[in-house]
């Protein structure tokens, strides 16, 4: 009776910043799914740059220097390559395709748009985590600052949508919705980032585990 060699760990790249990026990276490095994945690279926001659209994103709100760099620091502690420049450049394409070589990618609060060359590369897909409500898909809360839009509309909760990245803005195929995350009175955008990020990270890890299991079944049938 022959036995198959164990599957190699899934190579994953994280495009993330702030609390969502920190908790997703932490879950991948320390949570149950860490046994199945290898984080091969982290692209994170350089808040001092002009290309992260900080005036329309979370960086527009009061925050600390520690919050700006906590994803970078976590990656460095684990000796993971960190990239903070423009991603739509030949320099990054070379790193992405020849060094990182991800099987799957996740965007979790990232201030640059992802183009087709990036989102079409990973064989298992390129995904985003986006706050919204269950209002159909694409959600009316597509855009760079969904928590503010939810607060403006007096919503008392959000869910996190895991969806494929495509050439649109939060329009790729919906994969799953998280449980509801309720808003306390007088919550701010920063409060909602903090409170929702651990839930978003565990939700993504669960869905990633399903993707990995499906890949293993497909390999077993080959």
Structure description:
- With 222 residues, the protein is an alpha/beta fold.
- The chain has one domain (10-129, 160-177, 196-220): 3-Layer(aba) Sandwich (Rossmann fold).
- 36% of the residues lie in helices and 19% in strands.
- It contains six helices and eight strands.
- It has helices at 18-30, 65-77, 90-100, 116-119, 146-152, 189-220, and strands at residues 10-16, 37-43, 82-83, 104-108, 126-132, 157-164, 174-177, 181-182.
- Strands 1, 2, 3, 4, 5, 6, 7 and 8 form an eight-stranded mixed sheet that branches.
- Helix 1 packs parallel to helix 2 (65-77) and helix 1 (18-30) packs parallel to helix 6.
- It is globular.
- It starts with 9 loop residues before the first strand and ends with a helix.
- The mean pLDDT is 94.
- Keywords: Transferase.
- Residues 11-191 form the Formyl transferase N-terminal domain.
- GO terms for molecular function: methionyl-tRNA formyltransferase activity.
Break the fold down into its secondary structure elements and pairings:
Blueprint: E1 10-16, H1 18-30, E2 37-43, H2 65-77, E3 82-83, H3 90-100, E4 104-108, H4 116-119, E5 126-132, H5 146-152, E6 157-164, E7 174-177, E8 181-182, H6 189-220
Parallel strand pairs: 1-2, 1-4, 2-3, 4-5
Antiparallel strand pairs: 5-6, 6-7, 6-8
Helix pairs in contact: 1-2, 1-6
Short description:
The protein has 222 residues and is of the alpha/beta class. It is built from six helices and eight strands; from the N terminus they run βαβαβαβαβαβββα. Helix 1 packs parallel to helix 2 and helix 1 packs parallel to helix 6.
């Amino acid at each position: 009776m022959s036995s198959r060699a164990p599957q190699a760990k899934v190579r994953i790249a994280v495009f993330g910043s702030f609390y969502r990026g920190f908790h997703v990276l932490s879950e991948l490095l320390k949570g149950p799914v860490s046994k199945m994945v290898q984080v091969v690279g982290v692209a994170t926001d350089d808040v001092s740059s002009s290309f992260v659209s900080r005036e329309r994103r979370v960086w527009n709100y009061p925050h600390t220097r520690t919050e700006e760099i906590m994803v970078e620091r976590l990656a460095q502690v684990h000796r993971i390559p960190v990239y903070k420049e423009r991603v739509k450049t030949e320099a990054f394409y070379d790193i992405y395709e020849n060094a990182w070589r991800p099987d799957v990618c996740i965007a979790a609060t990232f201030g640059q748009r992802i183009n087709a060359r990036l989102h079409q590369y990973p064989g298992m897909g390129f995904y985003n985590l986006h706050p919204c409500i269950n209002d159909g898909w694409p959600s009316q809360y597509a855009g760079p600052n969904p928590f503010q839009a939810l607060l403006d509309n007096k919503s008392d909760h959000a869910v996190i949508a895991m969806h494929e990245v495509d050439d649109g803005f939060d329009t790729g195929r919906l994969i799953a919705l998280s449980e509801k995350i309720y808003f306390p009175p007088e919550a701010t955008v920063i409060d909602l980032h903090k409170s929702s990020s651990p839930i978003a990270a565990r939700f993504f890890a669960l869905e990633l585990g399903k993707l990995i299991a499906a890949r293993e079944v497909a390999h077993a049938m080959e």
